[in-house]
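Single Protein Entry

Contents — chain, fold
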Amino acid sequence: MKMKVMTILGVVLGSMLISAGSAAAAERFTDLQSVKWASDSINYMAERGTVAGYGKGKFAPEKQVTRAQAVTFLVRELYPEQLQSGAASASYTDVATTHPFYREISIAEKKGLTGGFPDGTFHPDMAMSRAETAAFLTRAYSLAAGKQSVSLRDVNQHWAAAPILVMSSNGLIGGYTDGTYRPDRSVTRAEFSVFLARVIRFEREAAIEAEDWDKLISYMTLSEQIGQMLMPDIRQWNGQVTTTVNEGLKRSIHDQDLGGLILFVKNIVDARQVVKLTHDLQNEAGDIPLFLGIDQEGGVIKRIPGGTNLPGQMALGATGDAALAEAAGKLTGEELKALGLQVNFAPVLDVNSNPDNPIIGIRSFGSDADLVSRLGLATIKGLRQSGVIAAVKHFPGHGDTTVDSHLGMPVLTHSRNRLDEVELKPFRAAIEGGVEMVMTAHIAFPAVDNEHVTSLKDGSRVPIPATLSKKVLTGLLREELGYQGVIISDAFTMNAIAEHFGENQAVERAVNAGVDIILMPQDPEATHQTLVQAVKRGTIPSETIHKSVKRILELKSKYGLFDQENNLAQKLTALTNVIGSEKHRAVEREIAERSVTLLASRDGAHPDFIQPDDRVVIAAAGQEQAEQLQRQLTSVASNPSLKPEITVIGQGKTSDALQAMEQADYVILASYQFRNVASQFGWAEIQTIIDSLNKRNKRYALLSLGNPYETIYVQNVRSGLAVYGKQEPNTNAGIKVLLGQSEAGGVLPVTTK
């Protein structure tokens, strides 16, 4: 009678355990104080959805684990998909179909995980022994003998001697202080969790060591696999900008099993803080390291604090020098790697063939596809030499649009022949050159995919952007162009995606289209759950996830992420010799000085020069820019008598600026057109000033600090330079030319006719 009561009690408790299993990953236990030695393993297995408690935060760690419960944990861990499908059939005489663990025991029997007793019974509610635990785990994971010596004096003659020795020789189980193992002693739920966690971690470590990514993926939960495909930005927590690994960030990394993060200026204070942040992030990540990425194109798009900025891609385009582009990529990679960053979302391979492009412009090498291809390849090579991954963008090409995909949906209506001749050429060259990461564009290309869907914004019919198009990403990029690397989306916060497609629908469609990593989902938690559920429903094939995760793991391994240095002090010490080093600054200066391009000239060779005794007026659209030019002119000229004045143009201030210019001998008129449509820019005021200066026969220079399209919209310019950026290296180089200290040797890399 007593035995029967105990059996019923075991069944009831087992049922409670199973019912809690579906929510195991979110369960937090409150009764682990007495087993702190096991709490990490228990929580790890709960997060994997393998073990579960009894509800209300109770795990009962010191309760004996039954044979049925042990089997259930193993089946949940190894064959979770079979719990949802297929008929169950157990042959054991004491395991009725009504037993709460019947299906799990059936699966375990079919898979050869368990063995019954000679009389055909299984004894499902009997407590597991330490010997049986070793036997179960050794059988389940096909473990082989390890290299550690074993000395357990009560094991040699035991029926489970072989599995116990296998486990012990791999450091997976240990004995007591008296040299015994006590194989017939029962195992608690805490102990079983520890044994199982050790085996899983051991197997994962072995897979990583062997670079057997298929094996590692087999030990990753679906949640972990999906997490590898997410790369959110680091958001605020408790109303504060995130610059350290706070509790909110920790929860995001663990709850979504994140595979990567992107950093922005908001996350950066200085170089030492970035190193500490990236170091702590990797320590939080576990056995699979994070991709940590950043946009460091140089020029107008820069993030490195105190680092070498570089004059930007169009400045490199003006030099036409592939060796300089390679040097730029190499030094950028060296600085990023020193900061703990492994992915650079650069170079931009867009061919900026449209002056009205509101978002690319000087971020591009130029308007010639061959130039973009040549310099793009060189930059990729330089980044690779430094051990940093180049993520080229924006496939299939963002260079001939008049809409910023951050704000709306651009549509490129060119024929396929034109795409092959211009937009696709740099990407084809990069693929042939072995590029390992490609970023998609949120741009529609009807010549490749003319599918339309109903917009959630206004109910209109909108074309599918490349990021969501299987014809573009799988058909064109993978199958036609032969690309085998990682495909990462552009940010999912951009309106080209955010306005027209619900994020849940968009991320699912992106993954089915061929995207391996979703960059900056608006709601990372919801995105994670959407993709997990899509795989469970079968609307995303598990094979698709497997292929993406394998590509990601292979790339992380190739760039040494699994072998990262963990010594923070060494990382901080190395910074001073890398970030903004004189060697890097020399490359920065050379690019800037060689890029300065003559836009207009009276003699066909030089701009108007500033003379030593000139009264100089500097006119710019903003006070800060004018003051920067003033400082630089004073410094470079080294002439105490030269005291340039400044004035601000635009916003109703042009009349005052013209009055200031009347007394000037020389005028520097700074023009900056970027992040807007060139044909809609306020050129009229620039033209008014140029006409006034020409009428008075003043010496001057129209100094183009942004997109160098001034001569399309402003007529009769007699002296002008393009420096391709308002950063100090660019403007300093332009001032040297105006002082006659260097030549304007750059070649305009875009068409202005």
Remarks:
- The CA atoms of residues 32 and 702 lie 72 Å apart.
- The longest strand covers residues 389-395.
